Amino acid sequence: MILQTQVTVNSSKQEYFNNTISPFPYFAVLGVLKKRADRKSAETYMNQFLKGDLGESKENFRLSMMEVVPWHWHEEFEFCRVIKGTCRFMTPTQTIELKEGDAVFINANCLHMVDLEEGVDEVVYHTQQFSSTLLEGPTGSVFKHKYILSVSNNPCIQGLFLSGDDSNHLPVIASLESAYTLFLQNDLGYEIYIRNLLSECLLYIIKTFKDEFSPSAGFSLPINNRIKTMMTFIEYNYMDKISVEDIGKSANVSKRECLRCFSTYLHISPFMYLTHFRIRKAMQLLESSEDSIIQISEACGFSSNSYFGKVFHHHVGSTPNGYRKLMRDTNSATTS
């Protein structure tokens, strides 16, 4: 079983999709959003929500357990369906509440994040990511140019909501679940069935939401790229002392425009985004390295060890040492 506790991204906040070049460029996730997630419960979620399927043995499958899925993007299309609970799915221009039975289509290259709704302690969801190469056929095909590129090349298409209460959406939501189940069952021909089902789902998206493919007010490809540039700057420089002015200059915009972009489109200030990023980096180092707490604090750009401990406890709910011990204990439990 591959257990994911953070989104793995490159220097441009693009999520790594390790199977894009595989013979079957498709990836499935059983996701859990849970405050103070304890990885000792990983096996419980596998048993409860896979119901005997073979997901734990498949290379293109993972269990994801996080408190929040941070801002990121990927070149692949994605469908996500909520199985339990309520969460907020966000793009730079949208906030969509997803409850049990709802689904969302996430366009290629779309910045997005997911977190828990206020008062909700747990959300379980299924995600399917797939490369356009799975559907498009040979170079120059009608499938690619008439259908796929009309979606993937349009920055106005971000998250498209599929309500479980809308009878028109129910067949496509059922098709998504069929694709997910077929993948886990691993029967002969599952790749062909999944390709067919996802092709039908994408065609449904094109037909149903064609009126939403026009430009969104206030959002464009240049703004999208500007935000990604500033996120990339933070990725490269989080370990140093950087200001909002520095972040803005990386995209050739003023401090005021930098603040506006983060506030309007990411719903967070640049400083808070930087703090969250540093905390995630610290969590990675606490789990994977033998560096001291002071070394990790300095490596992640915190001004002092005491300030690091205070901020870490506020965001994670434990001290850095406590988090390291918890991760080592749960790693031992899940590998034993």
From TrEMBL:
PROSITE patterns in UniProt: HTH_ARAC_FAMILY_2
CDD domains: cupin_RmlC-like (cd02208)
Keyword Acyltransferase tagged: no
Gene3D superfamilies: Homeodomain-like, Jelly Rolls
Keyword Magnesium in annotation: no
Keywords: DNA-binding, Transcription, Transcription regulation
Sequence ranges assigned to domain HTH araC/xylS-type in this UniProt record: 228-326
Pfam families: AraC_binding, HTH_18
Protein name per its UniProtKB record: AraC family transcriptional regulator
UniProt source species: Fusibacter ferrireducens
Lineage: Bacteria, Bacillati, Bacillota, Clostridia, Eubacteriales
